[in-house]
Amino acid sequence: MIKEREGQMKAEDVKQARKRDLTEKIVEKIFFICAFMGVLSVAAIIIFVFYKGIRPFVGENAYSVAAFLTGTKWAPRENVYGIFYMIVASLLGTGGAIVLGVPIGILTAVFLVYFAPPRLAALIHPAVELMAGIPSVLYGAFGLGVIVPLIMKISPEVQGQSLLAVIIVLAIMVLPTIVSLSETALLAVPKKYGEASIGLGATKIQTIFKVDLVAAKSGLMSAVVLGIGRAIGETMAVMMIAGNPASGLPNSIWSMVRPLTTNIAMEMSYASGTQVNMLFATGVVLFIFIMIVNVTLSRMTRKAGEKA
Amino acid sequence: MSIKAKDRITKSLIYIAAGLMGAILITILGYILIKGLPGISLHFLTSDYENKTTYVTTYFYVDNEDNGQAGYIGNLDASLSWDAAKEEVVIMSIGTGSPLTKALDGSGNAYVIKKGDAVEKAGDINVKEELSENKSGTEIVSEIETAMETNTDGYMKLKIQREGGGILPMLVTTLYLILLSILIAGPIGVFAAIYLNEYAKPGKMTRFIQFAIENLAGIPSIIYGLFGSLFFVQVLKMRYSILAGACTMSIMLLPIIISTTKETLKSIPMTYRESSLGLGATKFQTIRKIVLPNAISGILVAILLSVGRIVGESAALLLTAGTVAQIPSALTGSGAAGATLTIKAYTLMKEQNDLTTACAIGIVLLAVIILLNLSIKLIARKLKRG
Known about the structure:
The complex is a heterodimer of chains A (about 300) and B (about 375). Chain A is mainly α and about 300 residues long. Chain A has helices at about 1-55, 65-70, 85-115, 120-135, 135-155, 165-185, 190-200, 205-215, 215-235, 235-240, 260-265, 275-305; strands spanning about 75, 80. Chain A folds into 2 domains: about 1-55; about 85-305, Orthogonal Bundle (MetI-like fold). Chain A has a two-stranded antiparallel ribbon with strand order 1-2. In chain A, a hairpin with a 4-residue loop joins strand 1 and strand 2 (about 80). Chain A is flat and about 100 Å long. The model of chain A has no long low-confidence stretch (mean pLDDT about 90). Chain B has 2 domains: about 50-160, PDZ domain (Pdz3 Domain); about 170-385, MetI-like fold (Orthogonal Bundle), CATH 1.10.3720.10. Chains A and B meet through helix 1, helix 3, helix 4, helix 5 and helix 6 of A and helix 1, helix 5, helix 6, helix 7 and helix 8 of B.
């Protein structure tokens, strides 16, 4: 009798174990599908945006890709779509923001790591976090209410909306990214490097600039690249202060510009037909720039990882 | 130049840079505060954006003594007065038991008349018509007062205008979007992080997934907006709606939620899992009963970060959730569109050149963001203490 019972229990155990195994497998599959959503999302974004963006350039009445990429006039009513001047605007805006923002950002990080009294640092950290969290629309409001009127006072042009306004606001917007990533990179430099340098008779400043900053090079570079990504993709803040002309390359920092991002955001809500596809094509160009930035970034972090 | 002089110059540059950083932040915050503060009021936070006209019926069933005050209506327990600036008859005060708080609108639903509502018509008296007959405001008020106090029907029809200019619809839309997006992205993100940290074996597939998620984080929001406006709004026929906005936001949130949760999972000691497994628990049981409870605060941080992202987002929502200042009445289709606070701040600046109201919204946004940052700090500190 006891034996019989044991046999029954075993059969039930086996059944239960099987059920458990099945649940385990299903659960794992569900988790996997969730993780795979990231891949699906990227794929869907690429497929949909590229499909729509490539359409105007194939088939009948195809628009010339060369005319699109080299044109300096955007006039949907006349069926003229040239984005070269927007590419230039995006690159100049981003480049200017990096030139202006990176030195300030890295020097601030140096201040935080090597000079700031702990109390002051404890005050600056939340400030940097707050700056990173301020919505871009509010940076736009600040640009429109403060930067643009200031520029209007000194500009030879009649309006304050200009490449310079874009550069200043973007530089401010990339600062928190650059400060916090540079700080992390500097903190990761082993203390003994600096100690050795000081021991050899170098001053503190010499040590920071010739040893620590050099050792943190790859981290600093990632900060810069991430800043580039943020600047080139920024839309709303820039839209309000760029001026967004319908044509023309900028010929000075006082000229109005129309970056790629604002072109999309401005016209998307009312565009129809070919114009929509052309806006998607603008998106494709922007996407390619972003991809270059992303790939550079992941190469750099991988290299840094290998070194460590 | 001597090394000392060089050092001094560099050092002052470092101080200048840090000072500049602080000055910039103070200028931005100061500008938004000074510009927006005059716009902040209780009315601003709790009112509708558009002016709203409603026809209501009120009954007269209280019988208070007329206290002799001009404009006080005994059988309504409320008083009217003339607002000279707006040229309107305004309800000055309402007693707690006033029938006005139990008025009925055209379809028989209760409509609570509030202090500050304007009376455009009371029975046969049309305020605008009376005005065009060159009557003074006080005359009109006393005319309405007499008509109400001598009313024998027991009820009277009123045309009530409620002043807009508030941000309530945007607050509600933002809240809806936060709830919806986190409802969608939260579970997916957390499960994905569990897979990547607990199940995935290092290999091509895992690297591929990681790579995709990293890239997702780098895509600018305007591209998400383009994709959302094509895929969710058009292909899935959601139209400009909060669901289309929430779906688009969900994809944007995935990288934040996944990476934050993964960091937390990583920080849970391996021994916890080993002891659970050693006691005979299955992997899923271990995750449910040991890993997840230990990761709760990290997941909370991920959600708070997501809330910050949604509150601040504009480009993607502009192209998917629309710019209408209304409380969405559905998830998709008509009536489902709605502007968040940030979007409204943008349209106010762009279309109406109204920097003051935009900055007033900005103050609300800043308050939310500061609150979020503080909570995240608090949780992080608690975590450190263990």
